[in-house]
Amino acid sequence: MRQVPLTATVVALAVVTLVGVGSCTPDRQADPGGRGGGLAQAGSAEQGTGAGGPSDPDQRTRPTPTPTKAKPKPRPKPTPTRTAAPERAAPTAPTRAAGCPQGEYQREVETYLAKLGGFGRVTVDGRQSAADCAAIKKFQQRYDIRPAAGRAGPTTYDVSKRLATTDTRRCKAGSSGTTFCIDLTRQTTWAVRGGKVVWGPTVTRTGMPGYATPAGTYKINYRNIKEWSDPYEVWLPYWQHFTRGMGYHQTTTYLHEKSIGSHGCVNLLPADARRAWELGKVGSRVVLFGRRPGT
Asked: What are the phi and psi torsion angles at 23 (to 5°)?
């Protein structure tokens, strides 16, 4: 029988021991629980947060220590119970619309919109609410006031005041056919047929200083769905001429820019210009009264 040297035996046992340890070492990058971050060392969760982590399976099998017997505490004397009163709801504050700030003319605009009607419910109290905001936005969108953000600013105040204070009875409209009326002072316009207002009042902008639109009674004598202006080199949509090169047409600039104006024409918003075109015809009367401020 061949004898193996003692030194070789010791070396072989050492190799087996090292290989066995290497195959059982857990990979610290592995995440068998699906939580990410690898395996934590024992007690690391408690050290990091100050609170114990979830129990491991081996913790459930450990015997629980026997509790020491504590001295019984004296029983507290019973106190009479009282039924708590029901909690009252706090009064609700007026709802404010997100992103809809209150303007410096809040109460005035509320008053004029309530008088005009047709833009939704408003409460005349000088405080912005969700309903007020929606009504003001609708008004601004109708009359192309920019931005239509629901804020009762100077332009919204000016337009709503002009419309709410327009007296359609001041126009001496005929009893037959369609009559277009222009209040030059308030810069508003509307149409009357058979004694009833069938369009407007809506906003307009007439001649600027040096080109004042004259008051008087005229008749539409020429119409063109799109007229070219020779002196000013611009298209005039929904053109309805009534005197001296002046007529109704769709505005080519921002209507509420009061520092400018037309060269005598009656500027209209796009939707209003279309409606005036539908109502008018050659022979329709045009009545202008008052005077644009500053002209």
From this structure: -75, -20
Q: Please, how many CA atoms are within 13 Å of residue 83, restricted to the half-sphere of its CB?
A: 2
pLDDT band for 235, please (50, 70, 90 cuts): very high
- pLDDT tens string 98-112: 568 999 999 999 999
Residue 136 exposed, middle or buried by CB count within 10 Å (0-12, 13-18, 19+):
buried
Residue 278: what are its φ and ψ, rounded to 5°? Answer: -65, -35
| pLDDT of 67 over the 70 cut | no
Q: How many CB atoms lie within 10 A of CB 44?
A: 11
Q: For the chain, how many residues are written?
A: 295
> Residue 205: how many CB atoms within 10 A of its CB?
23
Which residues on neighbouring strands pair with residue 178, listed in sequence order? 193
Check residue 61 and report its DSSP letter. Answer: S
Q: In this structure, are residues 175 and 234 in contact, taking their beta carbons and an 8 Å threshold?
A: no
Q: Domain locations in the chain?
A: 106-164, 168-289
* Active site positions, annotated: 249, 265
Nearest to 119 by CA among 142, 146, 96, 138: 138
Measure the CA–CA gap between 42 and 33, rounded to whole angstroms.
15
**Structure-token pair, residue 84:** 């708590």
- Whether 181 and 193 have beta carbons less than 8 Å apart is answered as no
Q: What class is the 168-289 domain?
A: mainly beta
Largest pairwise CA distance in the chain: 141
Tokens for 199?
Answer: 């369009």
Query: pLDDT tens for residues 169-185?
Result: 999 998 889 999 999 99
